[in-house]
Prior knowledge:
By secondary structure, the chain is mainly alpha-helical.
Amino acid sequence: xxxxxxxxxxxxxxxxxxxxxxxxxxxxxxxxxxxxxxxxxxxxxxxxxxxxxxxxxxxxxxxxxxxxxxxxxxxxxxxxxxxxxxxxxxxxxxxxxxxxxxxxxxxxxxxxxxxxxxxxxxxxxxxxxxxxxxxxxxxxxxxxxxxxxxxxxxxxxxxxxxxxx
Length: 165
């Protein structure tokens, strides 16, 4: 993972949230929301559009229909293409989307698609990535604890040697 992943405990504001509110909650919980004050509040629309395109692509058996270009993603979120590029690394860092390309009318089109046939499967990939990160962190914590204990014992042993001599 290259960037900083920020997980939050953002919650829906009502007991029966709309799909828009739930999409926004998800974007916020996994750190995909814009971090600059005054940025777009429409980033959740990219998630919904990726899902709709994936669904349509699977129904029509046309994989290229699942792909969104960066320009399309930016337009969906109401931001510029360049700003969308800045956000893309977060989406790919958690394996929610994958970069892909296809040929259309003799041109190579590069874009991004949901990293699975459904939203759940794409988020499952992200979950595995985050879990692996936490598992590795837990190993580091365990190793740190051992090192601290050993360093303390070693220090006590050296102090005993000095006081005996």
